[in-house]
Amino acid sequence: MHLYDSLPKRRLGNISCLIPGFLVFSFFLGACTVQESEQSTPLAQIVQTQVSPEYAAEERAAIRALLMRQQDAWNAGDVETFMDDYVKSDSLRFTSGGSVRYGWQATLERYYTTYPDRDAMGTLTFDDLKIDILSPEWALVFGSWYLVRGGEWEDIGGRYTLLMSRTPEGWKVLYDHTSRAE
């Protein structure tokens, strides 16, 4: 059992209600940039009293390494290893293409359905990372994703926002909102 499994659903709901407000606030203050930076965003500055700059830098590096592990797993065609960094819980929420899925298994099945073969999976690149360490237990990630694909599949990309939870196993994705650029 993980920390977020033991939280009352109402508490998780309250956390999820705060995230859109944080995102809107960050957007209006110019927090979203097109390149990775160690500079704090306005959102991180609001919560900076929760963690030391050294701790925040270490945790940003850990999350960046996690994302690179995911990218490598995807590019090796290993969707299950890619999914290792998502919480294995019904609390996982994945939003994409106008649909919301709950749970690790439902998210895994969505990946297999959307990307049925290696050509469809293509080569993944994560870019434009902004990582805010909100507290010792929570982090918010904003970035871009690109798939260069072969065969009959067109190249695609878009943006994503992740709410990450610090667990005994390390950082895990709790909420993933991924959109495709038109």
What can you tell me about this protein's structure?
With 182 residues, this protein is of the alpha+beta class. It has a single domain, classed as Nuclear Transport Factor 2, Chain: A, CATH 3.10.450. It has seven helices and six strands, in the order αααααββααββββ. The chain has helices at residues 3-6, 9-28, 42-47, 53-75, 79-83, 104-114, 118-121, and strands at 93-96, 99-102, 123-133, 138-148, 156-167, 170-180. Strands 2-1-6-5-4-3 form a six-stranded mixed beta sheet. The longest helix is centred in the middle third of the chain and has 23 residues, at 53-75. It is globular and about 50 Å long. The relative contact order is 0.17. The model is unreliable at 1-38 (pLDDT under 50).
The stretches of 5 or more residues where confidence is low (pLDDT under 50) are 1-38
Task: Give the DSSP E fraction (strand runs of 2 or more residues).
Answer: 25-35%
Adjacency order of strands in the biggest sheet: 2-1-6-5-4-3
For the record, what CATH class applies?
A: Alpha Beta
Q: Domain count, please report it.
A: 1
Oligomer: single chain
Helix content: 40-55%
Count of strand segments: 6
- In sequence order, what are the helices and strands, one letter per element? HHHHHEEHHEEEE
